[in-house]
Amino acid sequence: xxxxxxxxxxxxxxxxxxRLRKERNAVILAHYYQRPEIQDLADYIGDSLELSRxxxxxxxxxxxxxxxxxxxxxxxxxxxxxxxxxxxxDAGCSLEDSxxxxxxxxxxxxxxxxxxxxxxxxxxxxxxxxxxxxxxSSAETILSKIPPEQKIIFGPDRHLGGYLNRKFxxxxxxxxxxxxxxxxxxxxxxxxxxxQHPDAPIAAHPECPPHIVDHADYVGSTSGILAYAKETPAQxxxxxxxxxxxHQMQLAMPNKTFIGAPGADGNCNCNICPYMxxxxxxxxxxxxxxxxxxxxxxxxxxxxxxxxxxAMLDLASGTVGMGDLGARS
Length: 329
Ligand code: 13P
Ligand code: SF4
Known about the structure:
By secondary structure, the protein is of the alpha/beta class. The chain contains 17 helices and twelve strands. 1,3-dihydroxyacetonephosphate (13P) binds next to loops.
């Protein structure tokens, strides 16, 4: 047992987190991929876009972000006056790691006639080098507002970018990043599972590779998949995204059956995001108690990154077009 774990032995962590949340005037935001025990005590659970909006709008003084680092950084970019804490600062993302800012800058410079449409799963530095950020739930709305003749580079997720290219008949230049979690689903095992449950539709996140997405009845963000699970009359659903989202599905629809899409070993546990899993109740308690690890961003960098995030929030809201953004800057 670690010294820290020994010191926490006997504490009622849920009660302590509740006490600290009130004392600190904190809001706990959690992504759907968080451990069930964290989802259960969060004030809000959502996809990347919803959590960004919550962070921008909250009255709380402290945002305890239970997700990965790029999400907590997004919260700080949008709400700089808040104290933003992340239970484990090592909670990164393979997509962010695939896209170092210096290489992304060189890619941009090699294509001066392209705009950079960038997935939110990237560093603050890459956001600062981008024109418009997208999430999986806002990408289609935003791309449909960009004139077809406009050349675009899209990073870091080549699977989301490829899915958008196919769906919209675009030829965006794709950065070669992948999500290690969605990359791990096995087409062979998925088809075996489907043969056992022929009436169960497949819902997939667009971070999945094409050999998985091509079998899906529904493709969308985490919140989109959750909404689809509620709408479909099917009683059994195969879920091709990080399996912790199934916790919310089971809570909302206790009479339906949700099966996580398998990896090569035939089960869905290899698809747990190792970065998301770093956050635990113990670390959340310590973060609220000590107000650390804390996200800090240098102000000029924050302002540069905020431009592309604001463009996303404006374009995703449905009332603003690309022309309005041009006029604004
Ligand atoms: P969404 O929740 O926005 O669908 O994104 C999923 C994701 O990549 C989290 O890492
Ligand atoms: Fe990154 Fe994939 Fe984990 Fe999401 S699920 S945080 S994209 S590694």
